[in-house]
C-alpha cells in the first residue's frame, strides 16, 4: 500500500481514531464489549506507534478473535430467526457493532509499520469512522425504527 502524501495524513488518522474512540466510549456505556476497543483506539490516536507494542497487539488480537466468533454466532442466529430488517433486530445492531470493532482494530493493527497508512487505508478509516455516527443519526430520526426499539434503547438517547 502506497503511503499517503502530505502532512494531513497523520492528522486524519488521529482524527479518525479520536472519532472511533468517542464512538466506542459512548457504546461502552450500554455494552461492555466496546470498552477494550475504546481504550485501544484512544491509545492509537495518541500514539499510532503503540500498535507495535506486544501487549497492544495481544489484547487486540484476542478481542478481535472473540468479536469474530460472537459475530459468526449472531449471523447464524439472524439467518435462522430474522423476522424483519436486520437493523430492527437487537442482534442485528449488535452484529454491526462487532463488525465495526473487528474492522477498526484490524486497520489499527498495521499502523505501527506506517502510522498514517496509505491512501486506501485512510479512505477506509474515514468511511468506518463516519459510519457509526451516520447510522445513529439515521436510526434516531427514523420513526418506524424507533417504534420497534425495546424500552432500554428508548431511554439511552
Characterise the protein shown here.
- With 157 residues, the chain is mainly α.
- It contains seven helices and no strands.
- The protein has helices at residues 8-28, 35-46, 54-81, 90-109, 119-141, 143-147, 151-154.
- α1 runs antiparallel to α2 and α2 packs parallel to α4.
- It is globular, with a radius of gyration of 16 Å.
Please sum up the structure shown.
The protein has 157 residues and is mostly helical. It contains seven helices and no strands. The protein has helices spanning 8-28, 35-46, 54-81, 90-109, 119-141, 143-147, 151-154.
List its traits.
157 residues, mainly alpha, 7 helices, 72% helix, globular
Distance between the termini: 40 Å
Q: What is the arithmetic mean of pLDDT? A: 84
What about the largest sheet? Answer: none
Low-pLDDT residue spans: none
> How many beta-strand elements?
0
User: Tell me, what's the shape?
Assistant: globular
Protein structure class = mainly alpha
Q: Estimate what percentage of residues fall within beta strands.
A: under 5%
What string gives the helices and strands in order?
A: HHHHHHH
The helix tally amounts to 7
Assign a percent range to the helix content.
over 70%
Rg: 16 Å
Topology at a glance:
Layout: H1 8-28, H2 35-46, H3 54-81, H4 90-109, H5 119-141, H6 143-147, H7 151-154
Amino acid at each position: 500500500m502506497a503511503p499517503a502524501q502530505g502532512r494531513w495524513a497523520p492528522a486524519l488518522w488521529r482524527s479518525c481514531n479520536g472519532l472511533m474512540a468517542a464512538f466506542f466510549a459512548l457504546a461502552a456505556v450500554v455494552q461492555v464489549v466496546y470498552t477494550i476497543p475504546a481504550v485501544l483506539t484512544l491509545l492509537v490516536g495518541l500514539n499510532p506507534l503503540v500498535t507495535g507494542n506486544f501487549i497492544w497487539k495481544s489484547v487486540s488480537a484476542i478481542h478481535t478473535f472473540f468479536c469474530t466468533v460472537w459475530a459468526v454466532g449472531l449471523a447464524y442466529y439472524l439467518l435462522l430467526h430474522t423476522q424483519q430488517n436486520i437493523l430492527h433486530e437487537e442482534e442485528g445492531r449488535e452484529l454491526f457493532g462487532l463488525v465495526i470493532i473487528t474492522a477498526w482494530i484490524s486497520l489499527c493493527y498495521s499502523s505501527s509499520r506506517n502510522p498514517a497508512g496509505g491512501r486506501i487505508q485512510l479512505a477506509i478509516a474515514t468511511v468506518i469512522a463516519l459510519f457509526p455516527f451516520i447510522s445513529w443519526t439515521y436510526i434516531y430520526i427514523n420513526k418506524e425504527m424507533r417504534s420497534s426499539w425495546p424500552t432500554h434503547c428508548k431511554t439511552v438517547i
